[in-house]
Amino acid sequence: MSDPPSAAYAAKTKYTEPVARRYFARPARKHVPEMKLMARACRFIPPQASVLDVPCGGGRVTVQMAQAGYHMTAADIAEGMLTVARENFAAHGLHIPVQQQDVEGLTLADGSYDAVVCFRLFHHLPSPEIRARVVGELCRVARRQVVISYFNAASVAAWQRRWRARWKRKPCREYSTPLSELKHYFQQHGFQLVKDLAQRRFFHNLHLAVFVRSEETKA
Ligand SMILES: C[S@@+](CC[C@H](N)C(=O)[O-])C[C@H]1O[C@@H](n2cnc3c(N)ncnc32)[C@H](O)[C@@H]1O
């Protein structure tokens, strides 16, 4: 039997509808480079692939990928986020299936999608056990590729965050991960790293890693 889902961490419970709407109104100086990074990662997913975006939040990644021709499904745990996502899809004239899902225990069959995208969640996961469980679920549901963002520990931004938290004597609730740790989780499920993308390497902490099922890298 698989482990039970973990006790809640902040990002699992904080996205009520008002918080979801604030997040969706993310300033362009953050949103635009993030979506450019995502577009670079999408070069590793063949056109027309079926893709699960989890967590979809307000659906900004889902919309960008749907407009690029992917067959998208959007999922998130927060009803407030799903409300914003549904409105966003309707505003773009897109008919995208939306599901409420906990990424720690997806109620989806193995290999349900060609690819799975997980953007801006991993750095909220507080323990190696939860991180390993989430990666296991993403790999189980993806037939070929998993694209996942993480905060790279070897960056100026990660170092600044750690110092700011120490200075304010507050726990840092965003967790940077060495790439080696991430690769280890994926290797356990037969996935290999094909690309690690960054906004600006060694400066920004947001990275996007593209993993591919090992049989695919040999093909
Ligand atoms: C920072 S937002 C990112 C949303 C979206 N990927 C984006 O970039 O706009 C984090 C999201 O993770 C969702 N979330 C947190 N824990 C989750 C879980 N266990 N399963 C599914 N979604 C979760 C939250 O509801 C929230 O929508």
Short description:
This protein has 219 residues and is of the alpha/beta class. It has one domain: Vaccinia Virus protein VP39 (Rossmann fold, 3-Layer(aba) Sandwich), CATH 3.40.50.150.
Report on this model:
By secondary structure, the chain is an alpha/beta fold. The protein has one domain (about 10-219): Rossmann fold, CATH 3.40.50. Helix content is about 40%, strand content about 20%. It is built from 9 helices and 8 strands. Strands 1, 2, 3, 4, 5, 6, 7 and 8 form an 8-stranded mixed sheet that branches. Helix 7 links the parallel strand 5 and strand 6. The longest helix has 15 residues, at about 30-40. The termini are far apart. The model has no long low-confidence stretch (mean pLDDT about 90). Bound molecules: S-adenosylmethionine (SAM). S-adenosylmethionine binds near residues 57, 101 and 103.
